[in-house]
Amino acid sequence: MKQYLHPLLILGFLLSSNHSAQSQQILFTIERSLNKDQIVYFLHLDEKGQIKEKDPIQIKWLENERTGELVPINWIKKKFGYGIDVLSHEKNQLTFKFVSYDKKQFLLKKDSLGNYMVFAKINERTMKIHHIYLEIEGGSFWKPNITEVSVTGFNELANSKIIEKFNP
């Protein structure tokens, strides 16, 4: 059964942990069926409110299984699993893909309200991405057997949540 921890709960955790909400804006989360830990992707802005050139998206690990703390993701997980490759970077937007899956591109840009959000195509429509869930059945540390990926997004025009499920 999926243990979905809503980004607002993570934001509450951040605020109670003396993190600035502005400097720690959550873009989206990844959850895995292996345990309750989550990968949290944060926006990284410069002093002018522009997307930073270096490390535009910060990735942290929410250790729900052990300490409940938010810690920097380790190099191996970032390099081979949950890190991102920046494909293009302009002043107010960034196109990227995951290091472990290059068949889907994501776009970080401002939405209609002026807030930075991550967008991707879900079922041929561009949606705001909120959450990704990975169903993992066996495999190894270096090559987990991911049987299903669920990408949850929001369609502003239709005011509806959309989920795309696929086998990688």
From TrEMBL:
The record places domain DUF4833 at 28-165
Note the InterPro entries from the entry: DUF4833
Keyword hit for Signal: yes
- Signal sequence span per UniProt? 1-21
Keywords attached to this Swiss-Prot or TrEMBL record, sorted alphabetically, are:
Signal
Q: What is this protein called?
A: DUF4833 domain-containing protein
Q: Which organism is it from?
A: Cyclobacterium qasimii
